[in-house]
Amino acid sequence: MQPLITPVITPRFVPSCTPTLMRGLASIADEHQLPLQSHLSENLAECEWVRSLHPDCESYSDVYDKHGLYTPRSYMAHCVHCARAERDLVLRKGVGIVHCPNSNFTLASGVCNVREWLEEGHKVGLGTDVAGGYSPCILNAIRMARVASVATTAPVGGGETSAAVGAGGGAGGEAQHHVTLSYNGNKCSRSLCVFLRSLKDAAAQRSSTWQLWVELHVWAWYSTT
If you average pLDDT over every residue of the chain, what do you get? Predict the structure, then answer.
């Protein structure tokens, strides 16, 4: 395995995977200690579909968990319509969520309340999900994440708000995440690194919960070797 390339096990989402397939992918991920990524509670119709396919499971997350797909190396995209019990399961298992605001707005899936996830202590990352959205640019995703944050948490005429998000589909609450894309030939790479101060540290400097700040430092660089 190349040190700069990490394979990711990707069950498309529950409706397209049989129980045998999900357990098999979980086994491969466990054997090789690989990360897992999939979709979770993107839209209401999808949630109903999953319930009809797995009536024995308490939630969409419960399906993944019962088939061994929930580990601290797992990341779930979207997570727009997760009830508290489901969020609690995600937190207990150490699963990260990947906020994809561009896609969510474009497909009218709903708006993820990122602040709620952060205040509960979840790992929160940022993704482009360009197949469902219209831009592969992570900076566009950052802008759209702020719009989503304002739409879900800002008071009328309120002050500053920030969506605490990491980059590359899997940064944590105090995130350091690197994504390297390696191309054939001259090995060009583009990388984005995001560092987030914890919400608790930010809260200590603000008198109002509506004025919480989360420091966001973005370093983007281009290198050719």
Answer: 77
Q: Domain ranges in the chain? A: 14-174
pLDDT of residue 20: 97
> Is residue 174 scored above 60 in pLDDT?
no
Tens of pLDDT along 36-74? 999 999 999 999 999 999 999 999 999 999 999 999 999
The per-type count for the chain, helices as H runs and strands as E runs, is 8, 7
Q: Give exposure, 45-78, as e/b (b: 16+ Cβ within 10 Å).
A: ebbeebeeebeebebbbbbbbbbbbbbebbbbbb
Mean pLDDT of the 22-29 span: 97
Q: What are phi and psi of 173, to 5 degrees?
A: -65, -35
Strand partners, 96: 75
**59 to 22, 27, 194, 214, 220: CA distances (angstroms):** 16, 22, 32, 31, 38
Q: By the 8 A CB rule, do 134 and 99 touch?
A: no
Q: Return the biggest CA–CA distance within the chain.
A: 54
Say yes or no to pLDDT of 170 above 60.
no
Question: Looking at domain 14-174, does it have CATH number 3.20.20.140?
Answer: yes
Mean pLDDT to the nearest integer, 198-213: 48
* Strand 96-99, strand 74-78: pairing: parallel
Q: Which residues 6+ apart lie within 8 Å of 208 measured at CB?
A: 159
In angstroms, the CA 193 to CA 216 distance is 10
Q: Do residues 80 and 102 touch, judged by C-beta distance below 8 A?
A: no
